[in-house]
Amino acid sequence: MCGIFGGAPELLCADPERLLFHRGPNQQGRVVVPGRDGRPYVIGQTRLSVVYKGDVPTPMRRGDAVIAFNGEVYNWLELRSELEAKGYAFETATDTEVVLCAYLEWGPACLDRFNGMFAIAIWHERGLFLARDRLGKKPLFYTHGPRGFAFASELKAMRYLDFGEVPICQALEFYFDEHTPFRNVKSLRPGEYLLLDSASGDVTLRQWWSFPRPELEFADERAAVQKFLDLFTDACRIRKLADVPVTLFLSGGVDSSLIQAILKLDTTYTVQFEEFESTINEKAYVREFARAQGFEARIVTPTRAQFLETFSDLAKFIEFPVGSFSVFPLFCLARAARRDGFVVALSGEGADELFNGYYRNELLLREDAQITEDFRGPYGTLCRRYFGSRLERFCRMASRQGGGGVAPLLEWFAPRWDDQRTFGQNLSSLESTVFMQPLLVMADRLSMGNSLEVRNPFLDHRIVEFSTRLADDLKYREGHGKWLLRQALKELVGADLGIAKRSVKHGLPSPVNQWLFNSSTFDRKDWNHVLLGECLKQLALGHDTLGKEAT
Hints:
Layout: E1 2-7, H1 16-19, E2 27-34, E3 40-47, E4 60-62, E5 65-73, H2 76-85, H3 95-106, E6 116-124, E7 127-132, E8 141-145, E9 148-152, H4 167-172, E10 186-187, E11 192-197, E12 203-207, H5 221-240, E13 246-249, H6 254-263, E14 267-271, H7 282-293, E15 296-300, H8 304-318, H9 327-339, E16 344-346, H10 351-354, H11 359-376, H12 380-387, H13 390-398, H14 406-413, H15 423-435, H16 437-448, E17 453-455, H17 461-467, H18 483-493, H19 498-501, H20 512-517, H21 525-541
Parallel strand pairs: 13-14, 13-16, 14-15, 16-17
Antiparallel strand pairs: 1-3, 1-9, 2-3, 4-5, 5-6, 6-7, 7-11, 8-9, 8-10, 11-12
Helix pairs in contact: 2-3, 5-18, 6-18, 8-21, 9-16, 11-12, 13-14
């Protein structure tokens, strides 16, 4: 895992290597290349050694081509063999060199061959190619204007930032797609690539991957469970491969427990707040699982004093609010694992999104099942007027401003809603392509803030595609989502453990409102405001200019 940056030097902070050091403490480097317009362009990288622990050229070059690479391509050895058969010779045992050669061989079409998480910058023939992985696990920001073009893994590497709120992001209380808190800086979208012509300065954006359209393939329970276990076992296996120690962020829920049931790692990490022990007791489930399987479950117990002590670091690394109380516990998990010598951690993001696992999904689907017959009956018109469409019900659920916030969400979500899909399929699509983005921001920033790489087996593109081929009742059944995952877990650990019987699972909240505002609610608006202020302060401390002379 790494930090990358580049473009016009005057658009970058004076020392991006220092600002992105936490993303790559093992090596740092940059090269200067000439553009067609005669101006110099920088390509730079900080490197965290995961696949190969020795030093390698950073950035890496082949002829006139230069690559700065952040992420992992898990099938790099297979791709290397394919490229060797075409005559390529390799000088390093890294996926970075394979990615560069794959681009030289296949151009942007190489992205379809990668199984992994990545943000890529390749300078070739005096032009720049940027790309992000399918679901946006690795970040990549860019600025483009009269001054020129620049990019970086994190906002802090950009010299000029012009703050400006985004209405849809204010409504949802998080940033996603191209949106950032700064008018002059955009995020490359998940599954998107960018081409810069250095002669004209023109930028071309293309979507190379979109969430798959549903195609029913699996309706038989037994066949679906077996197919999932086959795919998921391989997704876990390839994400365990590393030249450094690997651990797992383990909760008492289905998702991370499935990973542990397959990989049987020696050590795991779990957060347990004392304030929640009587209501959200992950520790009890995890310790029972650990006794049954014979692994060491390390419990991290964050405190209010630790939160106040690390608050500035949270803001420095997260850079903008994500509408979640999980910022602090995720940081604590990553810090504990890294201090104990781990460099890679696996985590369960993606399962709830793909398999209708959130309570909000269950609530909507449960209601929909109850009122379906009413819609078909003699009072169908009244029901449609009272309950509204499925999209309207979804937007009421998603609104953070009550009924007054529904209209802008309807306008924004309508183009993404497909009436040819079932309700569950639409929920999976929107959860995975919109609402998961801030969770992946957290997973990346708070782990990399501790120089720790987080990998997500559920976000293997084969699992994503498989989830769209399932009959709806293999995801949501009898009032609960993730039905298939629960069956798979029982196959692996039996039906008697608490993790296999648990029907209600909370997220990863922290008592921030209790600590800061003496409130027991999970309303995140005040927390977002406090965090945004500290984020802007930390960016200002690390920048030459904030909000001045913006492009």
